[in-house]
Amino acid sequence: xxxxxxxxxxxxxxxxxxxxxxxxxxxxxxxxxxxxxxxxxxxxxxxxxxxxxxxxxxxxxxxxxxxxxxxxxxxxxxxxxxxxxxxxxxxxxxxxxxxxxxxxxxxxxxxxxxxxxxxxxxxxxxxxxxxxxxxxxxxxxxxxxxxxxxxxxxxxxxxxxxxxxxxxxxxxxxxxxxxxxxxxxxxxxxxxxxxxxxxxxxxxxxxxxxxxxxxxxxxxxxxxxxxxxxxxxxxxxxxxxxxxxxxxxxxxxxxxxxxxxxxxxxxxxxxxxxxxxxxxxxxxxxxxxxxxxxxxxxxxxxxxxxxxxxxxxxxxxxxxxxxxxxxxxxxxxxxxxxxxxxxxxxxxxxxxxxxxxxxxxxxxxxxxxxxxxx
Length: 374
Hints:
This protein is α/β, with parallel strands linked by helices. It folds into 2 domains: about 5-265, TIM Barrel, CATH 3.20.20.105; about 275-365, no CATH class. The protein has 14 helices and 16 strands. The longest helix is centred in the last third of the chain and has 26 residues, at about 325-350.
């Protein structure tokens, strides 16, 4: 089988590439909007596509409970179910089991938990996670792992990482190989350099199509996250994509790209959009603030956003009036901003000017947004 990842250019540790899949190409560095329950919240699927996204993320835990993977399979798979024809990555369910499930019990076999929806008892194992993601028709399947809680002692992190590595092998064994469908392993090890190295090398020995870095952005802070990335990424194969799970804010993504990461996902652009917070070239803006009430300017003229036809005053009004259009418009803007951010980084890497581009981005965010004067 041909290697699905093509590296086109590098700029320092940053990489420009293409990941080829059964559902189309993914330009990297790439940001994946989160479509937890077969929907990117507040967005129609054609509007998600219009942002420039090449791939979206679905959630194994939520979809296995409702409407169930079996029902989605009967209806033609997740792509047909939600009307999205491009690649879909599904996470394995491990993180949600740890964060949402009630009365969970973990053993070598897997995790038994009570559904947060109806309390029913469910067993999720590496084999069942692979089966669910196969039923969904996931383009990129994630190995089943335990997301190590933070903080954790070295002993706790080592035990958790070792279990995840055994589950990674079982995931690989259970995965149904098909051309253009990929399986990613997940590096664990908390903030401990030796554990991250061991995990990365073990996953490489098992052999995956891509390598995710999990267990970060869970409270350790940006500086420590970037430090751990700097330690981990050099141990990952150069000919495979690297995916930092659950990250993050624009500056987090920029810092990770500079350290050689290729793929990202995060709920922030959609969650913040629903809560009146916009990501812009001038940093984060809260549209509930009274200073926007008489501001006729568009939100961010530096971003090719379809909501620039509306004034800040109008957006402020929508949130003050609790109109559902407000969250819809800001979600749309934030997703456009994130894709514009990724496109800018891809262009900068191609032209070997990422450092200057990064400095300009950070200067814009630090400069802040000054309200128009009356």
